[in-house]
Amino acid sequence: MAQQRVSFEWVMDDDPIAPWQGARDETAPDAPAREAFWMGRLGRVLSLVLAAFCLTTGVGLTHDQQAQLIAQEGIEFALNQENLAWRTRDRGLFETLIDPDVDDEWRDEWRDHWRSGAEAAGDYEAQLLYVQAADGWIEATVMTQQPALEWWQTSPYRETRFYRRVGQSWLRSAPPAASWGERSRLETAHLAFEYYTKDEAAVRAAATTLERAYGELYPLLGLPLPTESPKLTIQVMPAPVGRWTPARNELDVMSPRLAQIPLGQSEAEYLAYDVMGWFTYRALRDATPGAAGRYLYRWPILVWGLRGWLRDDLLDQPSPWRAEARRVFQEAAPQYLPLGLSNLTELEGDGRPTRQQVIMRYIAAESFVSFVVATYGRERLPDLLKALIHHGSWEEIATDLYGHSVEKLVADWNVYLLAEYGTEAAP
Q: Where are the alpha helices (DSSP H) in 112-231?
């Protein structure tokens, strides 16, 4: 599903059908992958037990129970066909599983993963967890395992899909915005949120987190909080959205109910994480008005790490891919350590870097920011930002900002890395 993406800086329904399925809580964290898998299996087993009980006892199924079983079986078949299409790279089969009346923007989103190479085809699997009625549609919660196409993606993830019956088939579709409920507006001290009814629980939970984080972000960078009028506005849309820009005073984000949610995150957490990336971009822009911004972006990898550190620290919520990134770093570190400051400034090669290379670059940059804060204090972060604007070399920064040599700065940073990640250089 759609994500709000920024290019690398260096390229610079109320009632469920089945009686045992309760209403969703969009603010509660998802179950881990294994628990989600068994919950899905349990739901299907209960459906079969109910059907068998009715057959053996002569008790008839209610209309809703019949509808639930029909939808569940039909959507499971559709997912099995989808898995087959991916494994065999059968684009024609995949297209037959999409509602012909769906908008092109949704088709493009669902086709996105065809960008992966043929070697990744066998690693795709979409599995049905449960279904429920949703205003004339069938809402299916699906767990998907697939190779990551972007460095920041995680797998498996949970997503909500919508299906409708066309003839004898259940096709993936997208309900119109009108089915999302009434449009509402929520304001906090500094922010405004516009959203539809179905997203209200997630938005209200995320708004509290984002207001706090936004209120801490600017002071952490030594800046006063902006007093924009109208307020900075986040519009939660039940449709794919394009790239965002810090120039506008509003941000369109796709409803978290339609997003690919990493297992372990709630919809509210996902929404907060998505929006916070935009906040950090805007804050760094505001910290470097005019020509200063051009000087700051002489350090693209480090600025990238700074934005990531700000987002995770202020949300008090690590990146969904953190555990995987840590593993990648630990496995690759022996051939990279000790790190040097060139890892924060120099871009290797002209081609698109591998996922491992991108993760290594990001972890290096984020770890440097974390090292600076742990060693010199959060109050010195604005000084680092100013130094990156005014100085063009590490020698100047190390001497003028920290009062010692580049060699000592690098040595202290690598000691921090060893303690933080439990890694060391190859002998």
A: 200-220
CB-side neighbour CA atoms (13 Å) of 337: 21
Q: What ranges do the domains of the chain cover?
A: 31-175, 177-286, 288-427
Query: What long-range pairs does 137-145 form, CB within 8 A, spacing at least 24?
Result: 137/13, 137/162, 137/163, 137/164, 137/173, 137/175, 137/179, 138/71, 138/75, 138/162, 138/163, 138/164, 138/165, 138/170, 139/13, 140/75, 142/79, 143/33, 143/36, 143/37, 143/40, 143/263, 144/260
Topology of the domain covering 177-286? Zincin-like (3.30.2010)
The DSSP secondary-structure symbol of 241 reads: -
Q: How much of the chain is helix, strand and coil, in % rounded to 5? A: 55, 15, 35
Residue 148: strand, helix, or coil: coil
pLDDT band at 108 (very low <50, low <70, confident <90, very high): confident
Contacts of 115 (CB under 8 A, 6+ apart): 149
CA dihedral (239, 89, 167, 79) in degrees, to 10, reads -70
Q: What does the DSSP 8-state code read for residue 202?
A: H
- Mean pLDDT over 337-360 rounds to 77
Q: What is the CA radius of gyration of the chain?
A: 24
359 and 328 in contact (C-beta within 8 Å)?
yes
Residues 6+ apart with CB under 8 A from 381: 220, 221, 222, 372, 373
Class of domain 31-175: alpha beta
Pairing of strands 157-166, 261-262: antiparallel
Per-residue pLDDT band at 350 (split at 50, 70, 90): low
- Cα–Cα distance for residue pair 373/382, rounded to 1 Å: 11
Tell me which amino acid residue 116 is.
S
